[in-house]
């Protein structure tokens, strides 16, 4: 029987483990990128526009709710269909909304409250 130094075998096993782990990490990163690309294509096919392309220029912009929603829904903002999140209140379809916060691809909206015009006081003269 041949005596193989235990240290040499453990170094080979360690090197193979590092190689397999590295390949696993590379494949995982590639899968994540492919999934993100797939979801972006699906959104574009549905006519939705990802908010990450223009995050800050949506702040304080008004739009219209396309769907009725309480938490998440779809709105038309600047001519694009985008996924939006309400501030917690129910928003009906065709309601005017305003963007209150944008963080990454998260667009927070609230309904626009229309103030009734004040009645003018007529002169009695």
Tell me what the structure shows.
The chain has 125 residues and is α+β, with helices and mostly antiparallel strands. The protein has 2 domains: 1-45; 51-111, OB fold (Dihydrolipoamide Acetyltransferase, E2P). Helix content is 32%, strand content 25%. It is built from 1 helix and 5 strands; from the N terminus they run αβββββ. The chain has one helix spanning 6-45, and strands at 62-65, 72-77, 80-86, 96-103, 106-111. The chain has a 5-stranded mixed beta barrel with strand order 1-2-3-5-4. β2 (72-77) and β3 (80-86) form a beta hairpin. The mean pLDDT is 79.
The dominant shape is rod-shaped
Helical amount among residues, as a percent range?
A: 25-40%
SSE run: HEEEEE
Output the CATH topology of the largest domain: OB fold (Dihydrolipoamide Acetyltransferase, E2P)
Low-confidence stretches: none
CATH-wise, what's the superfamily of the largest domain? Nucleic acid-binding proteins
How many separate helices? 1
Label the CATH architecture of the largest domain: Beta Barrel
Summarize the main sheet: 5 strands, mixed, barrel
Strand order of the largest sheet: 1-2-3-5-4
Radius of gyration of CA atoms, rounded to a whole number: 28 Å
Average pLDDT taken over every residue = 79
Strand content: 15-25%
Q: Supply the CATH class of the largest domain.
A: Mainly Beta
Oligomer: single chain
Number of strand elements: 5
Give the CA-CA distance, first to last residue. 123 Å
Structural class: alpha+beta
